[in-house]
C-alpha cells in the first residue's frame, strides 16, 4: 500500500462508540500502517486509534510493544489508555509509577479514570488500604460516576481488608434494599466480622431480591451463582457439610460460561470429598491451564490458593518435578508473597527424594532423613518446620524440639521474628504442658515487641503480637506486661474491637450473644453422642515381651545339696600344688601340647617336659612295622 493511499484510508476512519469488532480490526490495521510507515511513530491521533483498537480487541501484549515506541511528550495525553493496558497486563509497578509521575498535571476526568484503574489494581494485588482510600475519595468527590457502583466496590474492599487484618471496619453507607449486589457485599463484610447469622440473612435477602427481578433464566442463574457459592462456603466453614454440598450438587457446571465460577464450584465440591483418585481430580480441575487463562482476572489471594492446590495435587500424584519449581519461579512467587516458604519446602522434599507416601506413612524414618539434612546445612528453618510437622503426627517431638529451641533463641536475637518458628514452639510447649518454658518465652517476646517501633510493625508481626498478648493474659506473672502490649497494639490499630474490649472492659464492638448462639435446636444438640465429639486417640498397642534370641544354658551344680565335706584331717593336699600344672611330675601333656613340642625347632625347651613326654609316649605307643 502506498503512502498516499494509507493516508487517505486513515482520514476516512470513523471511530465511534458503536463500532463492531470488524471495525476495530480495520481501525487498528489502517492506523498502525499510517503510524509506522507514514508518520514513523510521530502522530498522537494515530497512536490513540491504535491503542484504543488494541484494547477493544484484547491485544494488550501488542499494544505494550507499540508503547515502547511512544514519544515521551505523548504520554500525558494517552495516560488512561496506557494505564489500562498496564492494568490488564498486571504491570502494577509501571502503572503506579505512571500515576505518580503525572498526578499533578492530570485534569479531573483523567484523574478520576486513573483512580478507578488504580483502585482496582490495589485491590487485585492485596493493597486494600490504598484501594479503600481511593474509593472513598471517588465517593466524596463524585461528579460523573454512579454512586451506587462506587459504594458496592467500597464494601467489597472493606470485607477483603477485614479478612486480611482482622479488623471490623464497617461502611458509612447503608445497604440499599433495592440492590442485591449491595446486600451481597454487605453480607461479605458481616462474614469478615464473623457475624455468620447476619451474613446469611443478607444473602437470603439478596437471593429473594434477585429472583423478584424480571431476568431470563440464564441471566438469573449467573447473578445467583456468586450468592449461592458464598452461602455454601458459610455452611462448609460451620461444619454443615451436607447443606453446603447439596447447594453445589444442584448447580449444573456444564451450563456455566464463567471459567472462574466453574473452577470454584468444582474445587469446593472436591474439598468436601475424600480424595480417592488424585490423578483424576488433577485432570478435572486442570489448575495449570486455568491459572494461565485467569491470570489477569485473579486477585493475588485467589491466585495463591489455586497455585497451592495445584502444587499439592501434583505432589500427591508424583508429577511435581524440580524443573517446575525452578529458582526463577520461586523468586517471582516470593516477591509476590513474601515470607511464604511453601515452594522451597516442596523443592527440598523432591531433592531429598521424599514423596507424599513417605510423609503420611513413614513419618519417623522421614524425620531421620530430615535431621541428617538439618545437621549438614545452614538453612535450617524450612527442613525444621517439616520435621516438626512429622513429629506432630507421632505426638513425639524428641527429634525436633532441641533444634527448634536453639533456632528460636537465635531468631529472638535478630531484628525480626519468624512467626512460623515461634508459633511451632508455643504449640509444642502447650501440648506438653511445659508451663515454665512457655512463660519465659512469652516474657521474652513481649519485651521484644514493646521495644519495636510502630512503623516497622507488619501485619504478620501485629497478628503474632496480638496472639501472644491474649495467651499471656492467662498467667499471673504476665498480666501487667500483656496489658502494656495490648496498649501498644491499640496505638497501632485503634479499630481492633477485641483489644478495645480488653482495655476498656466493654463489649460494645463485639458480637451480641444472640449471634453466637448455635442455630441448632436444643433437642438435636442433646442427642449428639459425646464420643463423636471427642478426638480419636491413637490406639495404644499392648506391650509384648519379645523372646530372647540367645538361649541361656543353666548348668547343674557340681555338688549336690546333701554333699558332706570331709574333715580337714582326712583331706590329702597335693605337695606340688604351688607348681604350675605343666611342671608337675605327674602331668601328662595333651596331643596339642605334643604337637607344639614336635613342631618347635631351634628353640630351647625345658628338659623335664621333654623327658616326661618321651617316657610317656614310649609306654603308650609301639612302633608300627611297615609291610615287606
Fourth-level CATH superfamily of the domain at 3-181: Tetratricopeptide repeat domain
Count of helical regions: 33
Q: Which residues form runs of ≥5 with pLDDT under 50?
A: 537-543, 601-628
CATH class categorisation of the domain at 3-181: Mainly Alpha
Descriptors:
62% helix; 628 residues; disordered C terminus; mainly alpha; elongated; Serine Threonine Protein Phosphatase 5, Tetratricopeptide repeat; single chain; 33 helices
List the helices and strands and how they pair.
Blueprint: H1 3-11, H2 21-38, H3 44-56, H4 60-67, H5 79-89, H6 92-102, H7 108-125, H8 128-140, H9 147-165, H10 180-192, H11 196-212, H12 217-237, H13 241-249, H14 259-270, H15 278-285, H16 287-294, H17 300-317, H18 327-336, H19 342-351, H20 356-361, H21 363-374, H22 381-394, H23 401-412, H24 419-431, H25 435-450, H26 459-472, H27 479-492, H28 497-504, H29 513-516, H30 522-526, H31 530-533, H32 591-599, H33 607-620
Helix pairs in contact: 1-2, 2-3, 3-4, 3-5, 4-5, 5-6, 5-7, 6-7, 7-8, 8-9, 9-10, 10-11, 11-12, 12-13, 12-14, 15-17, 21-22, 23-24, 25-26, 25-27, 26-27, 27-28
